[in-house]
Amino acid sequence: MVKITSIRALEILDSRGNPTLMTKVALSDGTTGVAKVPSGASTGIHEAVELRDGGNRYGGKGVTRAVKNVNTVLAKTMSSVDPLKQKSVDDTLLEADPSKGKGKLGANAILSVSMATAVAAASHLEMELFEYLRKNVISKTAKYQLPVPMSNVINGGAHAGNDLAIQEFMILPVGAKTYPEGVRYLSEVYHTLGTRMIKRHGRMAKHVGDEGGYCGYGLKGTIDAFEEIMGAIEEAGYTPKKDVVLGIDAAASGLFKNGKYAIDGKNLDASELLEFYLELEKTFPLQTVEDPFEEEAFADFAEYMKKTRIQVVTDDLTVSNPEIVHRAIEEKAGNALLLKVNQIGSVTEAIEAATIANKADWGVVVSHRSGETGDTFIADLCVALGTGQLKTGGPARSDRVEKYNRLLEIYDVLDGKCGYPGSDFRTAWRNY
Ligand code: 2PG
Ligand code: MG
């Protein structure tokens, strides 16, 4: 039986220049797996706990304690675990830190080992990671579909220094026939948008936010941003709605203060904000809205669901936590789950959250964090789950582009023999 011979973590930087972990798992046959952990800015209060050092070093954001936990406690505990059994790998990790939110050893420490072990196992079996996760971990057949990318072309909220309340303005290339064609749509619309904004607002508009989308310099508010994107879609030669639809992540917890949401110079209560979303849906081809209300507002999400037929995605509301996902399903507080591995802290639990959503006929959007690295695990996970949707930022900056490129590579590995859900992005994964 192949064994884990060493686990070694070190402190590296993420795309915002903040410390995070890189962990390498080595197996007895000489194969290795590496994982780098992402980090959010608009984090949900119920997310698993990132262990940070505090103090002055790196402004308190150092992760040397988490690194030490990997190199000592976890390395020791994992030495007797079968690396080819991801469930027992993760069970052992969870046993090592049974605290709520994995705050004792750090969810960042635990996740790095969970991911790196999966990567090492795939490498040992000479399988692609997506193939290993699908066949050996999720136990599904080898029919694959690549995701419709949800690309954040204008950044706002906590991800950019502008006046846009909405955190992410996204485009989805639903009219493309294949994933590579979808990527081309994204890139063309993105560049056209950049040129238009520079023409209108000057060279400052060329700058990008945390997720590779334009920083929105000069834009007056939500409608202005939507109109710019619509103009760019048409100018790039595409037809809005048929070829490209729109999405937002309102990340509304960040707008919420004293019972009201501050947006576009107004203070709206939940029902007024709901009317605003419904109005946007009428005016623009808006087909997916994430976190429309703050992270405890299950009833407001449910109210929105009664009035809309588009995709309502829960992120901060459910934090990829199987228990909370159950609650959201029961309360009909959405119809799609945002899945971030570091919100929950292990590969097995993330897959469990996705499976629960899938059984309830919810969509699943596999997602990056605003603080990323070149790690491409989520691209493989998305293909392995077959969810048909991936959110990984604008088509610029290598922390975002590496994921788009990994999917292009997977398309090539599969010789193009894979589905692309197009406008069925929420429901197509029933067939996969
Ligand atoms: C989100 C994410 C990713 P963050 O809110 O969906 O886009 O942002 O990682 O800052 O939580
Ligand atoms: Mg979000």
Describe the protein.
The chain is an alpha/beta fold and 432 residues long. The protein folds into two domains: 4-126, Enolase-like, domain 1, CATH 3.30.390.10; 148-431, Enolase-like C-terminal domain (TIM Barrel, Alpha-Beta Barrel), CATH 3.20.20. The chain is built from 13 helices and 14 strands. The chain has helices at 64-78, 86-96, 107-124, 129-137, 179-201, 222-235, 270-283, 298-307, 322-330, 341-344, 347-359, 377-385, 398-413, and strands at residues 4-13, 19-27, 32-36, 148-155, 168-172, 245-249, 256-257, 260-263, 266-268, 286-290, 311-314, 336-339, 363-367, 389-391. Strands 4-5-6-10-11-12-13-14 form an eight-stranded mixed barrel, surrounded by six helices. α1 (64-78) packs across α2, α4 crosses α12 (377-385) and α5 packs across α6 (222-235). The longest helix is centred in the middle third of the chain and has 23 residues, at 179-201. The two termini are 32 Å apart. 2-phosphoglyceric acid is lined by residues 40-43, 168, 211, 249, 251, 315, 338, 367-370. Residues 249, 251, 290-291, 315, 338 line the site of magnesium ion.
